[in-house]
Task: structure prediction
Amino acid sequence: MTDPLEQQMARQFVQSDQFDRVLSIFTEIESETVEAVQDLAAVTDGVDGVSELPSPEDRRDMLRELSLAVISGEFPTWYVERLAPVENSEEAAKFIGADPDVLAERWADRLRDRGIEGDDRELATAYARTRYGVAEFVEFRDIVIEWDEDRIENEIEAVVAENFETAQETATAAADAIDDG
Result:
């Protein structure tokens, strides 16, 4: 969304009572669905239930934040800071869209300045592992740096649908266990 007027109107809607009601309906249905599946899993041998889920209020707040991030074009930053499995996530978010080769070289040079030897990728991996808690530089690249429209769309869908998808998987596992029993 590039038109400033459209962005402002969308932000106002996301912060409105009407949007809050929509989110409340969504999160209550989501919560009730997950609870019903939890009940099914609890009485089905060999099926683990859903692990801890956020409250409908916390989920509503998260979806509002997500909406505002999408409107402002800042979804990748929001995602990395809030959900990405990296340490120092706010600092990591500064590298969204960076050139991975340039970044690897910069991090490698930092370590070389400390007397550590190796090629750029090895040293960048060591730096990323120590600073951001990822196993490989390529993992940092995939989680933090590289974002295209398809990935943005997929991650938004995953965040919005994650609890329903978990409920579906649990219900399917319960149905399979009942069918096998």
About this structure: DSSP finds nine helices and no strands in the chain. The two ends are 52 Å apart (CA to CA).
